[in-house]
Amino acid sequence: MADDPYAILGVPKSASDEDIRRAFRKLAKELHPDVTRGTDERFKKVSSAYEILGDPEKRRAFDRGEIDARGEPRRDGFRNYARGARAGAGAGFEEFGFGDIFSDVFGGGRGSARTGFAVKGHDVRYTLDVDFLEAAKGATKRVTLPGGGTLDLNVAAGVSDGQVLRLKGKGSRGLGGAEPGDALVEIRIRPHAQFKRIDDDILVEVPITIDEAVLGAKVEVPTITGRVQLTIPKGTSSGCVLRMKGKGVKSASRPEPGDQLVTVRIVLPDVIDDSLAYFFSEWRQKNGYDPGRR
């Protein structure tokens, strides 16, 4: 588990912003790799701790338990904080006061850039909930980042549940002019009331009447692109699976879209009238059909 940023900076939770700034200045001067050899890792920890506590908004989020000691979100969604919470909205080490502090410690300009010490920005991790049909057909989602900036995220058609999209350079800015980190967005697909998905195939159940099953019919069925006509062959049994070619998901994993697999369920009327009961009684006596003993 990551160290407590308060412990890393050596300050109590009641410390003022100036106390935290003063503690970081002292440690940065002592631990900077250009001043003391072998302190790179400790200096990185101190810098990461100040990245949280040096920003009042992030500090409050940490104290409330919304982010952990590494700056990672404790809850999902774009509303919550992540390491480098202002990624994509212009945030960086200048915003947290690093520039002024290094200038004070090392003298003039952006101290970290002058001394050659650079650390790549942290990756920012989010989760994004999308509807089933948005994932199947593709969509553009505008999301609001914790720092107030917005990001248009292209959710490609056929994206899978749990898939992680990497947005290059949309993480937090680096230290000393280093490149920024990336934004890693995990996709979570909400379930659909009718459709299920296996790979690029769509599964759906469709109810039909007993006469449609016996005589055959054309029935309207839902697909991810709208309702279409499906031919029910004469003599179709309940549980039969009919394939609708090319009515599944079109994804980058294969040149052709998947199929839709329609499972047919025969549904009897709520009330069996006398004429229907009489017909089947006569039919059973004459035919003696038993599918279990064929």
What's this model, at a glance?
Helices cover 28% and strands 22% of the residues.
Walk me through the structure:
The chain is α+β, with helices and mostly antiparallel strands and 294 residues long. It folds into two domains: 5-189, HSP40/DNAj peptide-binding domain (Sandwich), CATH 2.60.260; 196-288, HSP40/DNAj peptide-binding domain, CATH 2.60.260.20. It is 28% helix and 22% strand. It is built from nine helices and eleven strands. It has helices at 5-9, 17-31, 40-53, 56-63, 98-106, 111-115, 132-137, 210-215, 274-287; strands at residues 124-130, 139-144, 150-155, 164-167, 183-189, 196-198, 201-208, 217-223, 226-232, 241-244, 260-266. The strands form four sheets. It has a four-stranded mixed β-sheet. A hairpin with a 5-residue loop joins strand 2 (139-144) and strand 3 (150-155). The chain is elongated.
What descriptive keywords fit this protein?
HSP40/DNAj peptide-binding domain, single chain, 294 residues, elongated, alpha+beta, 3-stranded mixed beta sheet, 4-stranded mixed beta sheet, 11 strands
Strand order of the largest sheet: 6-7-11-10
CATH hierarchy: architecture of the largest domain = Sandwich
The whole-angstrom Rg is 31 Å
List segments where confidence is low: pLDDT < 50 over at least 5 consecutive residues.
76-97, 102-115
Strand segment tally: 11
What's the SSE pattern?
HHHHHHEHEEEEEEHEEEEH
First and last CA, distance: 65 Å
The description of the largest β-sheet is:
4 strands, mixed
- Integer tally of domains: 2
Helix content bin? 25-40%
CATH homology-level superfamily of the largest domain: Urease metallochaperone UreE, N-terminal domain
Task: Write the CATH fold name of the largest domain.
Answer: HSP40/DNAj peptide-binding domain
Structural class of the helices, strands and pairings?
A: alpha+beta
Q: What count of helical segments does DSSP give?
A: 9
The global form is: elongated
Strand fraction equals 15-25%
